[in-house]
Amino acid sequence: MRISSLRTNALRTNALRTAAVGAALTVTLAGCSTSGEAASPTGEEAASKDPSSLVLALVPSQDQDGLVDTAAPLTEFLTEELGIEVTGVVSKDYQAAVEAMGAGQAQIGFLPSLQLWQANDMYGAETVLQTERNGNITYPAQFMTNIPDKYCEDTPVERDGKLFCNGADALTGPAGLASIAKMKGAKVAALGPGSPAGYIYPMLALQEAGFDIDTDIQQIPVTANDAAVLAVYNGDAEVGFSFWDARDIVAKDIPDVGEKVVVFAMTEEIPNDGVALSSSLSPELQQRITDALAAYSESAEGSAILESIYSITKLAPANPDSLDVVARAAQALGLK
């Protein structure tokens, strides 16, 4: 999707939300629908109306085909811990997961930061947990290339089997952003506008560097972070956007990806993704789900599973106010 003005952005965002609703409604979700217009009950009445099954919505940050299978141990744990069947589904895109929660088709969402904010703002969902990755609660988006001679002002350095230049090996943002001026006319692999790392923050950096993101780059749409890495690796794009460090996902199958795909710049830090719970659930069930997920992330088995799903090392209590910065970034691009 390309954007040329705030007015056009608003129209396209509405269209995106409408399409996402349609996509969400086409997913087969057994026995989970709730009314978004009904008054929210409390106490024993709310608990008595909790659903007999729950749906965990996952967003496609990596290969969609295997994501539900990868998450199966998590949904099995929740089913046993809660005494309620929990099923995992992968939404068509980030926005569809938000709309599925709003439509009562999903009650638990593992969502990026912008979608956490939207789920709360639009549908009253509670952000209960945020992720930690190796002790960090924020992360940068990265600019990757297969033409380091063009974008690197210095010799790429190796770190953990992957190449970085322009100071990006510090692994925190911002870094190397002066080099993005060389992207005029480049083919760029970008995720959809709902992705903080795969679209919003890199595009905002380009906009702040004076780019017209509608005309100054050739956008190559991809559906997931690993797909952006592969687009650069395969030469379909000379630059790609992703979260740090999506090359690790691809390296499982393509060991030399860290050498051929070089990270040359990083954006400002982005608040980590997390877990949202539908407002239709009773406070008691919300707390049980929150406690179960937090305990799961503290266990060796659970930590390993969460690492394989979204590179999560721990689930910690959420700070909903930290998400405002992502909403402001999206607004600057006309996406909110």
UniProtKB/TrEMBL annotation:
Keywords: Signal. Pfam families: Phosphonate-bd. InterPro entries: PhnD. Residues 1-38 form the signal peptide. One of its GO terms (biological process) is transmembrane transport. GO terms for cellular component: ATP-binding cassette (ABC) transporter complex. It comes from the Bacteria. Belongs to the phosphate/phosphite/phosphonate binding protein family. This is Phosphate ABC transporter substrate-binding protein. It comes from Leucobacter komagatae. The lineage of its organism: Bacteria, Bacillati, Actinomycetota, Actinomycetes, Micrococcales.
